[in-house]
């Protein structure tokens, strides 16, 4: 049964405005437009929307998603299988972390004795093998390209960029106890977005995905939080707000 845009919006928990935007850029064009101008979405449209949202969760830009899904070689079944592997791996890691928390509570009460290794089980955020495979299969290489471009800069330019980065991080650290969607936080996170695009090519979606890495990858979290505890989480949230507003 065909569904109106508002019904699809409520079903998928995305805004009507977002669906209109997807239509305008050719990412998700409803199969039918009524005489009264209402967009009507078919079952095939909903299947495509599901894929769009899965790929967005991985941090792909809308342009990249369109290219992937419109590719004649694209297999929805293959993509769903990959999405499932990624989510199952994340679930297993979260289950391990929950178990570690429960054991730590008992350890603090003196009911059990945990080894140092046991205290950190589930905290390996260094990689998700299936997400890496998805990246290699469908290709968002923004971080690697940015690193390569930075290394190609002259030494004095690298020094200047390093100072800019430190200054931005210091200013963000001073704001980390404010609301991520505040005017001040968004003004500063915009500076971070502009900085990154000096050395790379970050779409808002890729920027949001990078922010997620700040909290999912312990190495990012540890380095960023040197500027102030909780900065990585604050930046992740602020970057998500910025990306959603500028998509």
Describe this structure in words.
The protein has 247 residues and is mainly α. The chain folds into three domains: 3-70, Multidrug-efflux Transporter Regulator, Chain: A, Domain 2, CATH 1.10.1660; 76-136, Orthogonal Bundle (Multidrug-efflux Transporter Regulator, Chain: A, Domain 2); 141-246, Orthogonal Bundle (Globin-like). The chain is 70% helix and 3% strand. The protein contains 13 helices and three strands; from the N terminus they run βααββααααααααααα. The protein has helices spanning 5-12, 16-24, 43-57, 62-70, 76-108, 116-119, 129-138, 142-151, 155-175, 183-199, 204-216, 218-224, 231-246; strands at 3-4, 32-33, 39-41. Strands 1-3-2 form a three-stranded antiparallel beta sheet. A hairpin with a 5-residue loop joins β2 and β3. α5 packs antiparallel against α7, α10 packs across α13 and α11 packs across α12 (218-224). It starts with a strand and ends with a helix. 22% of the residues are buried. The model has no long low-confidence stretch (mean pLDDT 82). Keywords: Activator, DNA-binding, Transcription, Transcription regulation. It comes from Paenibacillus silvae. InterPro entries: DNA-bd_dom_put_sf, MerR-type_HTH_dom, MerR_fam, TipA-like_antibiotic-bd, TipAS_dom. It holds the Pfam family TipAS. Residues 2-71 form the HTH merR-type domain.
